Amino acid sequence: MASRLYTVVVDSREPASLARFWAAVLEWQIVYEVPAEVAIAKDDDTYPGLVFVPVPEHKALKNRLHIDLAPDDRDSEVERICTLGATKTDVGQSEEATWVVLSDPEGNEFCVRRSRDGGV
Fold this sequence. Notes:
Elements: E1 7-12, H1 15-26, E2 29-34, E3 37-41, E4 49-54, E5 67-69, H2 74-84, E6 87-88, E7 99-103, E8 109-113
Parallel strand pairs: 1-4, 5-8
Antiparallel strand pairs: 2-3, 3-4, 6-7, 7-8
């Protein structure tokens, strides 16, 4: 039997705060929380989820793994996510890019894509 994706773990200076940001972005909920770990998912029975764990250092380099979001309306979603605390980020994307690069409150880059015809 093949493995299934259970969670993606995110190192964080403030796991509870960053978990709440991502829960708001994804309209998910906190499904588990202790001082050393906060997990979010759509609900208690739906995975994969995101788990936030504490680390002492700040993020220093561009992420080697990032999240892509595909909303129905990219520009409205970028605006909504920025009001939650994200910032627009330039990682060298072209002016013609069909995605917008944002950074979460701890500087982790992620993309908000324009939906493609026929789905994402």
